[in-house]
Amino acid sequence: MDLVSAAAFVEADGNPLDRARLRALLHGETAPPEALPRANDDGGFSAFWSGEDSSLDATCFMLDRLSDLGDEAATIRARAILFLQAHRHRDGWWEEDASLAERAPPSARAGDEAATVYLTANCGFWCDNARAADWLATRVAPDGRLPSFVQAHWLAAALLRRHAHAAAFPLVRHLAGRVGELGPAALAWLASTLPAEPVGAVARMLLTGRQEPDGRWRSEDGEAFDAAATVAAVRVLRASP
User: How far is CA 65 from CA 21, 229, 241, in A?
Assistant: First the structure.
């Protein structure tokens, strides 16, 4: 990893939160108040597609970024977790509000099984919810597949590991066969979620070869997210043994 060029890219192209995350990771700096994201009144965060309404997926996305910051973001993180917890169904699963279904992308569409599995894995991961782990375990096929997107597999695997579910093992085996298909942002996300697993080590190894000459790691979501993807890559590669 060329850390100097990665840092230069984020400083030049990142938003205030990207730069604050990088400085916290590299130098332990405290994020200035103006760099912290502003939550909605309910503690959640809006997605680009949800208008002013809070989204479960967007809130999980922001929790990942806030995890790089210290006490200055603790209240924002705690309110975001409370927002997620308030929207869990009794049986342990999550889905976005039905009123957002027509605007939501496939990964967040209420009433869609793949979206429900993914959001349950994501929200369950951040809330460390045992009922979510139980619900997800019943949906893992013998070959380790979930009826959802690939991201759901590493989020569910991490949650199931925490709660000692045997279903975590086939999930991790399944991911080992798919890690080579992943782009840079997904590799960083997997490695951050499953840092102690062999598949996490493979993801870190692959990630080291994906850095661009200008220091960035490219995001599968487009150039606007390259700085965030670069911070995520720096996070996992600096933490690796």
Answer: 7, 10, 22
The dihedral formed by the CA atoms of 167, 173, 176 and 182, expressed in degrees to the nearest 10: -40
Specify the residue for token string 């782009």.
Answer: 183
Whose CA is closest to 21, among 12, 13, 10?
10
Query: Does the pTM of the predicted model rise above 0.90?
Result: yes
Q: Which pLDDT tens digit goes with each residue over 136-178?
A: 999 999 999 999 999 999 999 999 999 999 999 999 999 999 9
H helices present in the chain, as ranges: 3-13, 16-27, 56-66, 74-86, 113-127, 130-137, 150-162, 168-176, 184-193, 198-208, 226-239
CB atoms near residue 122 (< 10 Å): 27
DSSP summary character for residue 33 = G
| Alpha-carbon span 109 to 105, nearest angstrom | 6
**β-pair type (45-46, 54-55):** antiparallel
Nearest to 96 by CA among 126, 118, 78: 118
Retrieve residue 16's tokens: 């205030």
